[in-house]
# Entry
Amino acid sequence: MASSITTLTPNGSLSAAAAKGKSSLRYRKRSVCLSVFYLIFLVVPWVITCVMMFRPVAQSSYDNLPGTGAYTDEDAQSMQRWLDATRAMDTVATVLALPVLSNLLAQAAVRYTQRQSSGRSLKLGQLFALADRGWANIPLVAKSVTSPRLASPLLLMGALLSLVALVQPPIRSVLVRYEPTSIATCADVEQEVYLVRNMRLQQWFDPEPSDLAACPRGLIIPKVQRKLADLTESDAQPYLWTETGLGNGTFPHTYQGPYSDKFWYYWVLAEQGYPYQNLSFYASSVPRGTTTGVLRYHALRQQSEAHCETVPRSAFPSTCPGDAPFTASLLNQSMVVRVCSPGSTDRSPWTATRNRQTISEDLWIDVEINTDYRFETSYRVNFTTHCTSNSSLGYFELPSRHNGEVPGPLLGRWPDRADIASSFHDLTSYRDDYNIPYESWSMTPTPGPLATSALALFGNNSFFWNIQHATQSNNTDVLRSICLGTVPFPKSISSMAGYSSMSEACYSIAWDPKFYGTPDRALMNLMIAFTVPFANARTAEHVLEAATFAANEALLTTTGNAGWGMYARQLFSSTGYQIERPVKRIAAIAVVSALLLVQVAAVVALAAYNASFPTWTATLDALAMAKIGREIDDAAGLGPLGIRDRQDMGGLVVHGSESGLIGVLERDRGSEMGDTAPPVPVLGLGAPGVIIRKTASRKPESKPESKV
# Structure
């Protein structure tokens, strides 16, 4: 297609070649196709990335809870492929950005240099700067800012758009972060455990409340006694969970200690005035810090808190109340010890419900030392202490990816069937699923946590019971056997109240059997070392909180492990299928979307600008500028080849002016070739005529001369 400017001969007539040609003014649609191609790579991956910040493509959620349907490993792989595809398209868009924008601007420069209204002006230096694609030339852009002969709005806008296209990818890479995430697939849900061997799964067993109510106390009390015999406040407790839910030991306080699985974290620091005295802990059958990963389960938890106070001796019940209370006593010439645990210690206080349950229990301890019996002054303490324990049993949600790896609070009510089916992976026990007949233990069930603690501390085969039934003779082996038995709290707890610990008393007997004089005197010293922590209300609370925790832990773990085959609920943990996902950040979405909006608006505007008006050439390339150069005479001020002239871009004048616009001369081919020839627009550099749409050639020429 002809692309030259129709020119005149020196005498004002059309050149022979021009007279035979057709107008090169035509509509050019190439920029539309180029823009659509580029916008696909620019916009589509960002839209997909924004979608993937909230959910996978073609899926409802990353959580894949039971109500959303099961994902396969192929689904997870597809999610990763979408992410890989967006990254590939982002790379293509980054590579295409500057070439595409430069091409669109080059096409826009052609229309921009055509005279479309009588009031427009464009200097010849500005025309040359656009032909040089100065928006991509940093020195030329810098010079254009200070030189009006070179600067044009299109040039400055092009430079700004190029800058946006250049900085958008690095800004996006800084703001848009990716994180690994786990997807629960069919291989992770519990039903598949028996079909395939899945190495991603771990398993625990959680007791049913109905089993807790039937668990024999003959199994629990010995475990509590052994636990208390080995317990110190600095031992790590594997089944101790912190009520705040911050299981990693970090708290929003000045002191952030990783020791919240130890009793001293709650006792010693509280006594020293740290802000943890209000923190509480509870026991579960699932080890502390357990996470279920991509799965979502509830587990039983049991918690007891003790409150003690010293009361007058007259407040001690004359008759221990209840249907089957527990009582214990030691009466001799040196001291009197009485223990009362009211209520029913022969049955469980828990019912077969998954809703929250709470109970309250009492314990009375009375100690009187004969003032005529000469013990150390520090041991001559008479006291009566009343303690109340409030215990709760219920469910909490285990840490998982769904709750930020933070255990949930104690639930008031168990979720309904619809909620469990849609949002959790909890299963009932096999017995409940298949209506297997239930045969309960025929032995005495375990009572409440405080009553269990009292039985472990003062009941049969306890340290108190051994002293109570010891033969008071010169046989020192009896004393040593007592100290080698289940001595509760052998270390430190007594010393917290300012008294010698049980281990110190037993060490004295082992080192020198005659240390306390007679054996009965040694026995009484052991008894005093055992009971004296209850003289201090705060220390008594610590003792009973530790004892009730041991009772809760023993009940939950024993029942869960004993019923694992049929009576306990199965809990699973799985890491799931690992993929990457973009991090949801509103600031990143806003900033990157704003930059992309600028690019999209500019590309669309340039495409519409280029396609909506006829131009005489596609771009101001070398051939087009050579034709423009034919009309620049010697008066334009351009120096000869090989000579650098500072006036080259400054003093260009055509026909006595500095105009760089392409306009229509007041001539037409009809005046030269006869009235029968169709009019042909005669274009010229600096010509005053306005180019209008009807001058365009709407039919392609049969023999194109150039691709310009």
Q: What stands out?
A: The radius of gyration is 46 Å. Residues 306 and 389 are 4 Å apart (CA to CA).
